[in-house]
């Protein structure tokens, strides 16, 4: 397009500075100017069409991004039912040896696998799961707990007795349908858990592995 504009203005300048130009030459120059002008109009029209298409594509992309941002996303593939739970204690809790901690403040329970009365998560879907537990101790009360799968410890967690110290333990384990996972005391005595700072969570990673 720059070359067309150059030709256009060159022709106009030539007419202005040439006094001895013949009628035939003037007609040729005017024809060249008209041709250049017509080409410019076509190119401008083409650019407008391209700009319109770009705006439409941009709007389509923005709509897709907005839809993607609003849609729920999980680690599991499309078509696979998600499973996830997150819970903590609503009040200080005393737990005795080998007893499950009943985390009663349920924040998320997708798939309804967690029971807040027993503190036990039962897998509604077979697959590979991520399970995690966080504890916080109170002054003069150390905490020793373990993550249990069907009665067998698969991870241990603790926080020192100095008070307000925390510990986190996470495991990845395979679960069949109705396999049970919970957190229990493992110290052989009664221990006191600080409410909000003690949690139990997990989610399904994948059903095939």
Automatic annotation (TrEMBL):
Matching Gene3D superfamilies: 2.60.120.40
Pfam families with a match to the protein in the record: C1q
Protein name: C1q domain-containing protein
Signal peptide: 1-20
UniProt GO cellular component terms: extracellular region
Entry keyword Glycoprotein: no
Primary residence: secreted
InterPro entries: C1q_dom, Cerebellin_Synaptic_Org, Tumour_necrosis_fac-like_dom
Keyword Coiled coil annotated: yes
Coiled coil: 30-57
Subcellular location(s) of the protein: Secreted
């Amino acid at each position: 397009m720059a070359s067309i504009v150059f030709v256009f203005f060159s022709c106009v300048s030539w007419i202005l500075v040439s006094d001895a130009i013949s009628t035939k030459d003037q007609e040729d120059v005017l024809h060249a100017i008209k041709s250049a002008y017509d080409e410019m109009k076509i190119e401008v029209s083409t650019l407008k069409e391209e700009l319109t298409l770009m705006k439409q594509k941009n709007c389509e992309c923005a709509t897709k991004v907005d839809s993607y941002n609003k849609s729920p996303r999980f680690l599991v593939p499309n078509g696979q039912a998600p499973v996830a739970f997150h819970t903590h204690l609503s009040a200080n809790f005393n737990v005795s040896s080998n007893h499950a901690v009943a985390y009663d403040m349920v924040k998320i329970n997708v798939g309804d696998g967690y029971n807040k009365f027993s503190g036990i998560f039962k897998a509604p879907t077979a697959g590979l799961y991520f399970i995690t537990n966080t504890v916080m101790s109170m002054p003069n009360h150390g905490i020793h707990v373990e993550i249990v799968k069907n009665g067998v410890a698969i991870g241990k967690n603790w926080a020192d007795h100095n008070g307000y110290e925390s510990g986190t333990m996470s495991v990845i384990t395979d679960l069949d349908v109705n396999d049970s996972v919970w957190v229990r005391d493992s110290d052989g005595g009664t221990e006191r858990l600080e409410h909000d700072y003690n949690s139990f969570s997990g989610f399904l990673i994948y059903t095939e592995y």
